[in-house]
Amino acid sequence: MFDLNVIQCFYALFEGRVNRARDILGRPLTFAEKVLYSHLSDGDPSQEFSRGESYVELSPDRVAMQDATAQMALLQFMMASKDRVAVPSTVHCDHLIQAKTGANMDLAAAKDANGEVYSFLESVSNKYGIGFWKPGAGIIHQVVLENYAFPGGMMIGTDSHTVNAGGLGMIAIGVGGADAVDVMAGMPWELRFPKLIGVKLTGELGGWTSAKDVILKVAGILTVKGGTGSIVEYFGSGAEKLSCTGKGTISNMGAEIGATTSVFGYDVKMGEYLRGTDRNELADLADGMSEHLRGDDDVYARPEKYFDQLIHIDLSELEPHINGPFTPDLATPISKFADAVLKNDWPRKLDVGLIGSCTNSSYEDITRSASIAQQALDKNLKVKSEFTVTPGSEQVRYTVDRDGYLDIFKKIGGVVLANACGPCIGQWARHGSEKQEKNSIITSFNRNFAKRNDGNPNTHGFVASPEIVTAMSIAGDLCFNPVMDLLENEDGKQVRLDDPSGIDFPIRGFAVEDNGYQPPTENGRDIEVIISPESERLQLLVPFEPWDGQNMTGMNLLIKTMGKCTTDHISMAGPWLYYRGHLDNISNNLLTGAVNFFNKQTNHIKNQLTNEYGPVPDVQRMYKAAGIQTIVVGDENFGEGSSREHAAMEPRHLGVRAILVRSFARIHETNLKKQGMLALTFLNKPDYDLIQEDDIFDFIDLAQFAPKKPIKLKVIHIDGSVDQIKCHHSYNESQIDWFRAGSALNLFRSKS
Q1: Among residues 294, 447, 652, 653, which one is catalytic?
Q2: Which of 195, 456, 541, 551 sits CB 3.0–4.6 Å from 433 for a disulfide?
Q3: In the CATH scheme, what architecture does the domain 50-314 have?
Q4: pTM for the predicted model, two decimal places
């Protein structure tokens, strides 16, 4: 197993640090608090931190990067003047594999199309001591769960679904590449101390209800932003009955409620998973200190005293849920879903069902879904929808293939895709999607925003458990309820699908011929990383200019966005994935999907220099060429879905200097700070309505930039009238230093 010595050293200190934190706080601790206080960069805890207010400096145990985000993260790390990463780190080649035909052909096509990028990632990993998981090895989050996650640990990953490791008792947080660079370079990692949401689970799952339905229910309660700035901690007798991979499924989709992360305390099911994945030594260690790897008894006995918000779900009463379309928090129990389909005129015919991806791709998930597929064969049912399966890792794929489950899917017409992200992130070459016809798909994935899967804004994407997806695919009808409805088979008989069944672990154990892992060389100093100056996909970085210490004045409004806004559309149907390692090329994607408040169009804004309308990147490049700094004004939760550092680097590269919004998505706000941007919120949210299309902006007191001190901004309208608004910010002194230096990396490099 990996990193046993590192984990042993951490566990040797864990109990003492937890006891010290308990003494300082003078009360029992939640499990999340135990993990956070045991990972303070200063070592033993010495003070209490205020939830939602205090900034803490942490020392994560590990970094994990997927291939799309790793490019920019490692390009930044190359500027940090380090010979080797300071903590165990890995790169996983999973995002760049396009789903089209099937596993073998798609993987071969990916290696051909992305050879330049894979070679870069492999050589950089080898040079700096980073573990490299080759294309086809599996999806980053499943691989981490199978190999690296450990109870009580902390990791960061350059993907929002890093939180999958919470299913194995790890605080795992999705971040941007700049944060990953901090940790890999040996710097403390900064986080605003999260609030805590407790979810008490009682009862026991049964019938068609699965672990996926827990998070679908929670998403409906909290909405896409209800978890922002919070850790969700699951506990209770019901939680202990869930499989480890089921816990991972729940934690994974916590990204869709905006939560910092989600986590379960250690229990017997986790120990079983560790032993099932050949980590017996780790299981023994965790068993020996299990009382510390969960919340204190009084926390779980009286949770209302210790959590900022409390949710109770009785698993015995929980129905299967289907969430969507176009948002993962529109939760509908299956008993009411048919009525919702008809009432809302959603396309009733189901075109495609898709199971797998980084969540719901475990052995348990595959076997439960296969039990439904086998019934289609046994009961002579014709599968009405297209159906695809995406295994989570090569280990899972090899084992379920050995045990005959993939054959079952193939017999009902299913297509097995590569061990990669594919349709979940828009890397799906779906036939006919270019027609942009209104249609419905259902997946066991997490995200279902418009255009997310196939680039078609009229594709209605629904999210459900893999069992429900499989049953729905057999019926080809969104109004079908497998809990109670009958189906007509090829003999004209009415038949009912039985409840799904499956097993947590293969009876003969997991097996794999080549798991796809490549360790780095012991000394990579002589390894040369070559990037062609003519490359369209990779570009060496140039440091951003530092702030001159003066008020920024005469700033043009670039765009005032309206409603939900993903700041770049890298994930939407995948074309921008091509440029993840080339900052200038990918900057042509800046805010192209944002809705312009003034004309309700996307990528169509007024150029104040020409009084004509044009694409956002083109207008901004003209402003930059003219030496004009600009500001972006945004709505609520600005940057949701923009965990990637590109979303902050693009405006910075093109000359935007400030972002002023009603509220930020957590990761995006942090990324803006890292890149030397000014990230501000309206002190009075209604001031958003004051901003007009031709406005010019002058900062009044930016030269006195200081923590907790609002910044005054003068807004000059085209008729000569002026509004003065106050802007709130969350910068501490260290983050202000980033702004002064031009970026966090600039500051770090100056001190190295």
Answers
A1: 447
A2: 456
A3: 2-Layer Sandwich (3.30)
A4: 0.91
